[in-house]
From TrEMBL:
Pro residues bias (residue ranges): 668-682
A Pfam family of this chain: Transpeptidase
A GO BP annotation: regulation of cell shape
Protein name: peptidoglycan glycosyltransferase
Source species, domain of life: Bacteria
Top EC class, one word: transferase
Catalytic activity, as annotated: [GlcNAc-(1->4)-Mur2Ac(oyl-L-Ala-gamma-D-Glu-L-Lys-D-Ala-D-Ala)](n)-di-trans,octa-cis-undecaprenyl diphosphate + beta-D-GlcNAc-(1->4)-Mur2Ac(oyl-L-Ala-gamma-D-Glu-L-Lys-D-Ala-D-Ala)-di-trans,octa-cis-undecaprenyl diphosphate = [GlcNAc-(1->4)-Mur2Ac(oyl-L-Ala-gamma-D-Glu-L-Lys-D-Ala-D-Ala)](n+1)-di-trans,octa-cis-undecaprenyl diphosphate + di-trans,octa-cis-undecaprenyl diphosphate + H(+)
Entry EC number(s): 2.4.99.28
Subcellular location: Membrane
Length: 689
């Protein structure tokens, strides 16, 4: 009897000692806990989402944690399907709504496991929130220190927050394998859907992954067995009906990256993991318009800094892209007939605001990040001439002003013999004076050079710089393309002929909000006066003439869109290294560029191609689809201008001539008596495009 008493006392002593030891460990481990107020200031990194102008998702930019891209978008509890929430809670912590952060029933099980040398078990949803946030550095440690700290912090977390708030936190912080964190990232990674659309079967699949997501993703058969067990338990405990459980079991579950086949009873007949990378979110994941998305990312980095974009993320970025117009642009680019080895850029913007509505930065290579629409600084060829003539309109010229088409030469040390002798594309000239309008219709070089010389090449150079051209020095060659510009900047410059004379700044982003809906950036269109409204409209009229004046002999006839008024100008540089068409129609300023990245001369069927053949049909194809169903019409003419019919060659008014616009008081005169008229010459059939 005495021996039994001594044994009992010894056991009590051991138990008391063990409790003292545990008490000391609890004190030691919890006396330096993280301040829970840090939790309130905790900023979870999140994926940033880009939206098109109609509100549809366009792309996602992953945030970065510990050097790797993280796919996490924060969601509210009500944004997750109840079936998925129930599946996660039942699988991970089915007594979640009964305990106070620490489940003592599970702790007893955990202590038993610890006694056997296994430190797993005892976790609740609340402790997992703590583990994945404040104790992240201990998340992988199987230690009593982590457990004691988790329990202490969990009790305080339960005191400060409601069960629903804690569950919402959990759904946003739990890692789901690959680079998916949180249920929104997991739903998109494994099933390509929003968490609100998750079914019970999909919720159970995701819940089954949580303890070891990367390993369990590789074992669909094992996860299916786990789902069967959970469904049966949910029925036994009254969480779901037998009918609902069987319907969930029979759902053919095929996570991304897998190929699987089921029978009608839900049994997995065949499963094969074909693409383990399919569940991973790329650092930049886009649905369309890759080069546009890249440009938006550059804007965000420049505006907010990389730490904000990647270290915090969670931005909602509302862009200017019009999805229907973008599809039209991509379709036109795919169908384009291009010279050998050529690339293509197409950009369309709103001439009133500068908002970029569609952008194609290249067509030949997948994953190509070089955006030719915004980065290809190339010579524009004859596409610069409308700016030369518009500058002359500022100086008092009109479309009927006569300008010589005769040979000329200038000193130039860079040319053979030190003399520059520019030529027209055809190598011939009219050897007479013709109207500015006709000079542009034929895209003649010599009249443009004469014009720049007459009004002052410095004046032309300054105007081109204001329009966005890169002018190294004011030489007469700039009048026929001796400057440089990108396609998007050329579209922004041409917008001045459609909006009353303003060069617009290309705009890609309308608004940026943070994760709480606070506005971080609100765009304001930037416009800079380039021409006065009367000059700008004369320039527009000049561009219309280029498309329509010469009928079937027009160099831009391929740009005509039935039911719409179009104006524009082609451009071809030396040896056809660059092919351009810049076009306008109400609602759009569009530029199509074609060239090689290595700047080598273009060839098409063994011959040197012309922009008048290659580019206008691409413009027409795009505009016809982009503006389908929208009203046509012309830009309204400002007061102070009048219309008159004018002979293209002589510049005299003529009932049989071409209709042009003029400032009031500058209308052309009727021709003099017949005996005083100079002899007329037959115009050439084509000129420099």
């Amino acid at each position: 009897m005495r021996a039994l008493r001594l044994l009992f006392l010894a056991l009590v002593g051991l138990l008391f000692g063990a409790l003292l030891a545990l008490g000391y460990l609890a004190y030691a481990y919890t006396r330096a806990l993280p301040d829970l107020s840090l939790f309130e200031r905790l900023r979870l990194t999140a994926t940033s989402t880009l939206y098109a102008r109609d509100g549809t998702p366009l792309a996602q930019i992953a945030s970065v944690e510990e050097g790797r891209a993280i796919h996490r978008s924060l969601v509210r509890l009500e944004e997750v399907s109840p079936a998925a929430v129930a599946a996660v809670v039942f699988s991970e912590d089915r007594r979640f709504f009964q305990h106070y952060g620490v489940d003592f029933v599970r702790i007893l099980g955990a202590l038993y496991a610890i006694a056997r040398g296994d430190l797993q078990g005892g976790s609740t949803i609340t402790t997992q929130v703590i583990k994945n946030t404040l104790l992240k550095e201990l998340a992988q440690a199987r230690s009593l220190e982590r457990k004691f700290k988790e329990w202490a912090l969990a009790l305080e977390l339960e005191r400060r927050y409601t069960k629903e708030e804690i569950l919402e936190m959990y759904l946003n912080v739990v890692p789901w394998g690959g680079n998916a964190v949180g249920i929104k990232g997991a739903a998109e990674a494994y099933f390509g859907k929003d968490p609100a659309a998750l079914t019970l079967a999909e919720g159970l699949y995701l819940a089954s992954l949580i303890p070891a997501p990367n390993a369990r993703y590789q074992d669909l058969k094992g996860v299916r067995e786990r789902i069967r067990l959970l469904l049966d338990q949910m029925v036994e405990e009254g969480w779901v009906s037998r009918e609902l459980a069987e319907a969930a079991w029979k759902e053919p579950l095929v996570p991304r990256g897998w190929e699987a086949r089921y029978d009608g009873e839900g049994n997995l007949l065949e499963a094969r993991l074909v693409d383990p990378e399919a569940r991973l979110l790329k650092p930049l994941d886009y649905r369309m318009a890759p080069h546009f998305v890249l440009e938006v990312r550059r804007f965000l980095e420049a505006r907010f800094g990389k730490e904000k974009v990647y270290g915090e993320g969670g931005l909602r970025v509302y862009t200017t892209l019009d999805p229907a117009m973008q599809r039209a642009a991509e379709g036109a680019a795919r169908r384009a007939r291009l010279p050998e080895g050529a690339e293509l850029a197409l950009v369309a913007l709103d001439p009133m605001t500068g908002e970029v509505l569609a952008l194609v930065g290249g067509v030949r290579r997948e994953g190509d990040e070089y955006n030719r629409a915004t980065r290809a600084l190339r010579n524009p060829g004859s596409a610069v001439k409308p700016f030369v003539y518009a500058t002359a309109f500022e100086a008092g010229w009109t479309q009927a002003t006569l300008v010589p088409d005769r040979p000329l030469e200038f000193p130039d040390p860079s040319q053979p013999g030190g003399i520059w002798r520019p030529k027209n594309f055809s190598g011939t000239f009219l050897n007479r004076e013709i109207t500015v309008r006709y000079a542009l219709d034929l895209s003649l070089n010599l009249p443009a050079i004469y014009t720049a010389k007459a009004i002052g090449v410095e004046r032309v150079a300054e105007k081109l710089s204001q329009a966005g051209f890169v002018v190294k020095y004011p030489a007469l060659a700039i009048a026929i393309g001796g400057a440089s510009i990108t396609p998007v900047d050329l579209a922004a410059a041409y917008a001045a002929f459609a909006n009353g004379g303003y060069r617009v700044a290309p705009l890609y982003v309308q608004k940026v909000e943070d994760g709480e809906g606070r506005v971080l950036y609100q765009a304001l269109p930037e416009r800079r006066r380039l021409f006065d409204p009367l000059v700008a409209y004369q320039g527009w009229d000049l561009l219309k003439g280029y498309v329509y004046d010469l009928g079937e002999k027009s160099l831009a006839k391929g740009a005509r869109v039935p039911g719409r008024v179009v104006g524009g100008k082609t451009g071809t540089t030396n040896e056809a290294r660059d092919l351009w068409f810049a076009g306008l129609t109400p609602g759009l300023s569009v530029v199509v560029w074609v060239g090689r990245d290595d700047n080598r001369p273009l060839r098409m069927g063994g011959r040197e191609p012309s922009s008048s053949v290659v580019n206008p049909p691409i413009f027409r194809d795009f505009v016809a689809e982009a503006l389908r169903g929208r009203p046509g019409g012309d830009f309204p003419m400002p007061s102070g201008l009048v219309r008159a019919r004018v002979d293209l060659l002589s510049g005299y008014s003529s009932p049989q001539g071409v209709e042009m616009v003029f400032p009031q008081g500058k209308e052309p005169l009727p021709p003099p008596p017949p005996e005083a008229q100079p002899p007329q010459e037959t115009p050439p059939q084509e000129g420099t495009p």
